Amino acid sequence: MQFELSSEQQLLRDSVARFIAENYDATQRLALVKADEGGSGANWQGFAANGWLGAALPEQFSGFGGSAIETAIIGQQFGRGLVIEPYLGCAVLAGQTLLAAATPSQCDRWLPALIDGSQRLALAYSEPSSHGMPEIVETCAGHSPKGYVLHGRKTLVLGGPLVDGYIVSARLPSQPTSRGCVGLFLVRADAPGLSAMRLPLHDGTQAAEIVLDAVLAQEMLGDPDRGLQALREGLSHAMLSLCAELIGAMERTLEITAEYLRNRKQFNVPIASFQSLQHRMADMAAETELARSMLFVALASFFNDSANERYETVSSAKSFICGIARSVCAQSIQLHGGIGMTEEYSVGHYFKRAVVADVLLGTGTVREAAAAQQLQKRFSDARTGAIYARAP
Amino acid sequence: MDFTVDPAFVSFRTTVRDFLQNELPRDLASLPRSISSERSETAGWQRLLTAHGWGAPYWPTNRGGTGWSVEQQIIFDEECAAAGTPTLDNFAHKLLGPVLNHFATDDQRAEHVGPTLAGERFWCQGFSEPGSGSDLASLRTRAERDGDFYVVNGQKIWTSYAHRADWIFLLVRTSQSEKKQLGISFLLADMKTPGITVRPIMSIDGRHHLNEVFFDNVRVPAANLIGREGEGWSITKYLLNNEHASTAELPMLQVFLRRMQKLAGEIQLDGRALVEHPQFALRLSRFETEMKAVSMMVQRTAALHGQDGAIAHAMGSMLKLRATDLQQRISAFIVEMLGDYGAVFYPCPYEGPATSLPLQELAAGAASEMFLRRASTIYGGTNEVQRGIVAKALFGL
Questions:
Q1: Is the pLDDT of residue A93 over 60?
Q2: ipTM for the whole complex
Q3: What residue ranges define each of the domains in chain B, with the CATH number in brackets?
Q4: What is the pTM for the complete model shown?
């Protein structure tokens, strides 16, 4: 393993960092949030022109042939800047799910337009009672002479108000409700029977709640036997991106807080001279480095594990890192005192992103509960516990 | 960045595993592995490794070591923990060894390396004193030059395993310079030298690891000075720097994890194994995740070894903060898993007559290790000292 960025990876990081420095200072960001349009179209075209929207998509579909490492590099810098455009929802989650589900000819038809920024898709998979877990699907797909017809309600569709179409997960006919075949369907945003409600999120990003009332799907992506698997693969990539974002967010929060402690004076001295605050910062830094180590565990899983193992590892990493990010960002507010509570100051916004991240893509507690169940299954499979007798 | 696993490491792991499977005698192995072995077990294991050419797994080849990379050393440690080998004398291997390799004369190395790798010379570390803990440089044990000897007077404390060590490496004050760090020197002394007295300190885990060591006009040959007179403090900084990746005590954490997994499958609650209860499964799963993160942090710390910069300087301290905290929490959880038996005191068989209490086999040693873990946030630089290092290095606070 090599933890340092290669020169090519450094170039990517530097170009994203430059974009953030030029377009995403606190004032610019606040203006974007206040405009209430889920970010700027010009920024999105900039992402496309720089190749970031297709960084981890294959070259044969006009992508740039990178891997999860490129996604993480971009995500980390976007986290430092608290970017509000739907990179996570559209470029990573929808893009990677489409790649995992679709046939080559479907990829050919859709991916180039997503990568050049001319079209946007969002993934509509979560539902009111699924809390972000892809296996729980009540939306159903019925046959009609014209094709598949969808009924159901989807929540927290990331980037949902800003897209041309949705990838919708739905249970196929004659399957029991909790398990079985899940198909992924492409649906136009303006399809008859589809209504979308804009959901503003705490962190300035936007999602949608969509209701499907006998909506005719354009097409099904790939094979219904692989729908759930494709969803998990898309989610693995998106959870990784979110983890990287939070590492960036924590890094930036620590920098801002350290600077504040050095400048702020009370009792005629910089408050940085107080040991209780120094030690708190040291603990926050140590937690952040532990979280970064977990991000590397997740990244390593993309190169060494099966898709199922990867999904489990990245899920655990997601709840682990979100927990740390909430704590580190909350403490940054505390270390600032009153100013940390204000809308104009940035640390509160990092905390909001951490809170939203914990909810996105499967809430922390639900993902942890699933991991615990998986562990029970491992024990019952092993029965005697003999497989734990040796190191990995 | 590159996260592919080097195939050379996969085959190295197989080599180590095969060696352990074929060469480690049953009577030397214990599972779960004990945290620190008896002297005879350690000596036997050391002899076996030396006979195989692996006697110094952490040293470079030009000093008689295996020349293994840091990654290989971690693999070796992991496999040894998994196979339940005795522990090695880490004072010799990980603390004194690098100092001998870097600062000692050829004559000094010739005198000590052979017996140490033959399992005949055990070492202890004489640093702390009653008045000098975190403020180590304030130490007062004196060494005055008298012809070809230093005459040492003073007292060391918290000296682990002094009672079974043959030699001690210690810090002494050789001059009263204005800057207290400059008057310190690094000496080696034979524990059998007249005037050295060892007094045991029993610790809260019910065992004898710690000692006081008294020096009363002890005559140490001047040839046993390492480096130059007054160079002791910079040697110490070098030694502590080498310790960084190993302060996590990853092999021990892995032993804890295995014990936890074993108990989860074997201890019953309401007629079912603990693991079948969601609360226990959740905590187990969280510990497994945290272990993965700490293991990766160990690898990152090892990869930063010898590099400059704030993060390289602070990473060892941050690893110590996170890893020792995990050691304490996981060892406490193991005791909790024992249910009622978590409250029972199982005397250590090494400290007195053997007992046979209920659940003896699964429970014995667990609470003792949990109590001993309280020391992990004190030794090797208290965690409060580490926090000071991190705050200064990373944030200039």
A1: yes
A2: 0.94
A3: 7-88 (no CATH), 123-230 (2.40.110.10), 243-395 (1.20.140.10)
A4: 0.94
